[in-house]
Design a protein that fits this description.
7-stranded mixed beta sheet; 15 strands; homodimer; 6-stranded parallel beta sheet
Amino acid sequence: MTTLNHQFKLVARPEGNVKRSDFNYTSEPVRDPVEGEIVVKNLYISLDPAMRGWMNESKASYIPPVELGDVMRAIAVGQVVASKNPQFAVGDHVNGLLGVQEYAYSDGKGLMKVDPKLAPLPVYLGTLGMPGLTAYFGLLDVGKPKEGETVVVSGAAGAVGAVVGQIAKIKGARVVGIAGGADKCRYLVEELGFDAAIDYKNENVMDALKTHCPKGVDVYFDNVGGDILDAVLARLARGARIVICGAISQYNNTTPPKGPANYLSLLVNRASMTGIMVADYYPRAMEAMMAMGGWIAQGKLKTREDIDTGLENFPETFAKLFSGENNGKLVLKV
Amino acid sequence: MTTLNHQFKLVARPEGNVKRSDFNYTSEPVRDPVEGEIVVKNLYISLDPAMRGWMNESKASYIPPVELGDVMRAIAVGQVVASKNPQFAVGDHVNGLLGVQEYAYSDGKGLMKVDPKLAPLPVYLGTLGMPGLTAYFGLLDVGKPKEGETVVVSGAAGAVGAVVGQIAKIKGARVVGIAGGADKCRYLVEELGFDAAIDYKNENVMDALKTHCPKGVDVYFDNVGGDILDAVLARLARGARIVICGAISQYNNTTPPKGPANYLSLLVNRASMTGIMVADYYPRAMEAMMAMGGWIAQGKLKTREDIDTGLENFPETFAKLFSGENNGKLVLKV
């Protein structure tokens, strides 16, 4: 009996929201590894907003677009099922760019071994993975919150935002999260210990910022862009630092992104707006993993994953990121 | 015979371009100084883009708006003609917020004595004044150009931009100026030693940036905002620093300012955009004055003033800043 590898291949550049018809769902037999190669059975696939950018034919992006006809790029954790590479043994768990498919071939470069005894595998895609590192370094290296300062984070119930807010609390800041819906806002305040949450779907963000940030915003960690970025710009404190991590509100736009009309608030407030790319911090990943591992062990840093099941559901599950339906780090169990 | 003090008083919040009817041109007798006061005869009035913001009823600004009915705020250099303040003698030359008028009363706070033997008086309003300090600290403290890097400056033939470009050259950077018109561009390259100039009125700025900045832009000093800011954002080098000094293209807008649609280039390029306010650097003014004084003496830093004559021409002369008709630091000789 032949084992089949089901795969999602990108066949069209999505316009606006991603549709099932932008992909071919195909299968091919799994082959043996060649010399130096391993075969990984994917267990959990990470669904991240950045993937939307990888689907575009943009040369301006930080990594090349996924070519039409190629397996959709994604981070995943899996288990080595065959190895002709002395660095990896059958049974090892690995984390890396393994794609939206059941089996991946790799020469091992860029893969990191992970230990399922130290943390559940999906956590390596969230708090102990790319989103967690993004939060850790973006907040601490660029945002640099000081004790008593006010930190605002958007996409606050998402994989990056929830970690940003909790680390800011650990560092002694006052933390206000912006998220969509009463459930998420309750989660931020009651479960994660945020000082306040703003439900952008049901509240006027400008007014709510005025209420919850009476002295202005010292650090803003932006995952969403658009009108929320503009609202926070209008409430900056002197010397504020804005960390630009993403702009999920803009990724499905078919028109050019909306620039922040209030950017001259940077001038008035001697504030900065700085973009970050987590890849720049990979050489320092150990530092973040040790710190975050410690906080998780102490119960100071909570993780939450939203796990859908079934590779075949990839397009619909991915769409949840943009409608905001996911609660916590969105993962697809293969 | 009574000496009259002619004054421009703001009587309307300008909509769009400033009109003569936004002011009353009035006169009143000059009175004697009260105890602790001096009377200054204004000699040269500085016309700066920031003054446009002071005319608006905005609470978001960094200093309060000029109240309706008040003398229009402006920096000027003048000579003390009467003094009841022991720190100032009749005949002293002073520089400060003396207003659009022939005579000003002051308790001396915020005034700085200047020496006309060391530099012509109008230079204290430009290269050795607020614009020069803005250029010096904005470029060196925030832009931080390294030898061999590419520095782009907009409003390059203006009071701030010309100094930015020349200091960047002194620091060993490759310098590209953006200005309006062939004359200004020729001036930048032939007189000030810029490596290249882009005439935004007659060239496609995007294409020209590609030609003149083949490795991308490392430092961008922005005086204009709008489409030019967006064009430069699209050409950033990795780790670029944008200094937001002003946005003259937006100051006369009657609609909200245009935000930079390409701001996500900050993310891709791990770049920053930081607003500066020259007032923050006043305590370090001596450092800049000594450095720039030295460069002027060595012929490395050239100054140019565009001097109109006649206080009564204030509204029309001020408008030249926004049409780009001025060549160098715009000054009104009283």
